[in-house]
Structures are given as C-alpha cells and as structure tokens.
Design goal:
It is found in: Cell membrane. It comes from Vibrio alfacsensis. Belongs to the drug/metabolite transporter (DMT) superfamily. Small multidrug resistance (SMR) (TC 2.A.7.1) family. Gdx/SugE subfamily. This is Guanidinium exporter. Pfam families: Multi_Drug_Res (PF00893). The protein is mainly alpha-helical and 104 residues long. The chain has one domain. It is built from four helices and no strands. Helix 1 runs antiparallel to helix 2, helix 1 packs across helix 3 and helix 3 runs antiparallel to helix 4. The chain is flat and about 40 Å long.
C-alpha cells in the first residue's frame, strides 16, 4: 500500500509543478491555489509512505516520478522538444526508480 501512496504522491508532484508554470510566479489565483493544494497533498502522501518505506528509497522514487512525469507533461503541454538524449535520460531515471524499488 505504501508504494501506491508513494506513486500518487509522485503524480501530485507532477500536478503542482505544472500548476506552478500556469501560476506565472504565483500571480494568478486559481493556478496558485491548485499548486499549493497539490504541494501539500504530495508532501502529506510522501509522509504517509515514509511510515513504511526507507527515506532514501521513497524520496528517490518520489523525485523520479515527479521528474519523469513533469518532463513528459512538458513535452505534451508546452511543446518542449523530445530529443533523443532527453528520452534516453528519462529511461535511465526509470531504471533508477526500478532499482530503488527492488532495493527496498
């Protein structure tokens, strides 16, 4: 169950990162409220997952999910280039997350 909570926390991290872009430096109310809500939710869920999972593994997986998800969403929403090196680097992060999961 802790892994599911951690995965959802990572998705919330993606949500707040995207919301941060739309908030334009917290100058727009609705995107700013969205961002802060998902920040709190992401940290809260990470805290719940840390009741069971080791800190180093949980934090690494959480950050990895956030980084991969944010990069993919940015390619889709903001037309960021999906270069070969970027995609290979994302695959390496996926490999690192898998390694951390198996290390737990």
């Amino acid at each position: 169950m802790a892994w599911v909570v951690l995965f959802i926390a990572g998705l919330c991290e993606v949500a707040w990162a995207v919301g941060l872009k739309y908030s334009e430096g917290f100058s727009k109310l609705a995107p700013s409220a969205f961002t802060v809500t998902f920040m709190v939710l992401s940290f809260w869920l990470l805290g719940i997952a840390l009741r069971t999972l080791p800190l180093g593994i949980a934090y690494g997986v959480w950050v990895g999910i956030g980084a991969i998800g944010t990069a993919i969403v940015s390619i889709y929403l903001f037309s960021e280039p999906a270069t070969l090196i970027k995609l290979i680097s994302l695959l390496l992060i996926v490999a690192g997350i898998a390694g951390l999961k198996f290390a737990a």
